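Quick sanity check, Excisionase:
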Amino acid sequence: MSTALPTSHEALTVPEVMAALRLSRFKVYDLIRSKQLASFKIGASRRVPADALHTFIQDRLREAA
């Protein structure tokens, strides 16, 4: 699994988000359930918009400052 965030993808899979944030599947789904990380479903597949991931990271950085 690649650890680099795919820059050409507009929507990321949960495993891609897991790799980018170095978090477990449970934690990524917990962030989605708690509305901290935006996502959407296509059929049974869950996707996270790349912009939502970048916003999530920027928000965490602002909180830490």
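Posting the structure with no commentary besides this: The chain has one domain: 11-64.
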